Amino acid sequence: MDLGPVGVWWSGSWKVASVPAVDAPAELEALGYGALWSSGGFDPGLSSRFTGELEATRRLVVASGIVSIWATTAAELAPAVAELEARHPGRFLLGLGVSHAPLAADYRRPYAKMVAFLDQLDAAEPPVPPGRRVLAALGPRMLALSAERAAGAHPYFVPVEHTAAARGILGPGPLLAPEVTVVLNDDPVRARELARTFTTGYLALPNYADNLRSIGYGDDDLAGGGSDRLVDAVVAWGDAERVAGRVREHLQAGADHVCVQVVSGNGGFPLDAYRALAGLLLGS
After folding, report:
1. What is the pLDDT of residue 160?
2. Alpha-helical regions (H) of 88-205
């Protein structure tokens, strides 16, 4: 499954209000983005958003980033994935994750829960093959599991140094597809202000906070939506050239594919930002 070097991560509406005749997925495919990533939400089974994205496009990969294993069962997912595979062969990638304790009831032993869930996907009829699934992985054990039991890993909310470390754990073969949040604004005050509308909520989630602590960020860095140092590491901000440079840093650090998530503060799908970045990252 070829995702290309750069994809789009977005979980709001894919409609472009300012251009009524245009749906974003079709234009993003035309621009050359290789994959569309969306949250799987917290309802059982697969969200209908994935069917809509597949039907709106012809070639690119649609991926869940992620389906929470606490919100659904392997028995619900396997036939839904098989149906998408039958209708759109080779174009759907199932991203799975353990989410976070504040977001899931009865959250305990998440690693063991993931292992059991993968066992159930293997045993389902039809199964979801390892090559058609990736894991939201931050720490060493989940990254290693991503290499052993899936096509690879989809880390979220991570700086470049995490991408480099993740590649070392995964080895040279498995897919490494980190999400990278970007703000296309070159004013430091405004850019960091917009970035903190994104970082504040994620820093309150223990798995993300603990992962950042593990790579050298302290409690002072994690407070108040993140220190400038942390915000600058996790969110790429600046003009399109500077942001594109950060995406390239992740690719040079070992990522196979980078999922770009634009934070604009304007509401609606930020198609203009993806157009600007495509020209630098995809030759569009």
Report:
1. 98
2. 110-123, 140-149, 160-170, 188-203
Cβ atoms of 196 and 185 closer than 8 Å: no
Rounded CA-CA distance 60/80 in Å is 19
Banded model confidence at residue 270, pLDDT cuts 50, 70, 90: very high
Domains of the chain, start order: 6-281 (3.20.20.30)
Extended strands (E) in the chain: 6-9, 35-38, 61-64, 67-68, 92-97, 133-135, 152-153, 175-176, 179-184, 235-238, 258-262
Average pLDDT over residues 133-146: 98
Question: Are 83 and 57 within 8 A, CB to CB?
Answer: no
Mean pLDDT in residue range 78-99 = 97
Token pair belonging to 276: 């600007």
* CA dist., res. 228 & res. 235, Å (int): 10
User: What percent of the chain is modeled with pLDDT above 90?
Assistant: 88
